[in-house]
Amino acid sequence: MEIAQGAKEQGADLIGFVFAESKRQIDIKKAHRIGQEVKGISKVGVFVNSPLQEVQEIAEYCQLDYVQLHGEETPEYCRSVGRPVIKAFRVAPGFNFERSQEYPADWILLDSFTPGQYGGTGITFDWQSLQDFTSQSHIPVMVAGGLTPENVGAAISLLSPSGIDVSGGVETNGKKDIKKIQEFMIAARRAEGGKTNAK
To answer: pTM of the predicted model, to two decimals?
Structure first.
């Protein structure tokens, strides 16, 4: 609760709840409670290859503003969610730009590729290789993957994304750290002049 409130106070536009199986997975009831108490910030639920009905039920119960899909979900799946969608793509050699543009998503999220892992790896991808992606994409682009207070400015300067997504880069010993969140937000805002959304 304190971390969500603190992130909001530091200027984050969205907060994420990881419902996919991972070390950051949150209990549904806890996410609901935080969402009820922390107002004025958009709530994002993170899922990986979950049954559509499960996603819809959790989104309704937790009153999610966005559903972030990190698996192999199809365009048809995204279309059926019934909420604004952030569709994540793991950037590997041969990343298919055209395929990403076929998705009925409100955001595209570019994340690093690690075999067998869906986000939260703390590893960056080759930003240079996708330098033109954000300007060519007709869907707003969010960037994730190994972002920290030290490198977020460089990522923003190079890619000019519409949003940034951070997790491990603002943690200490596996827990969110308000001081690091503050440092991250300062670095991000300085780099983009207040135009990039942050989660």
So the answer is: 0.90
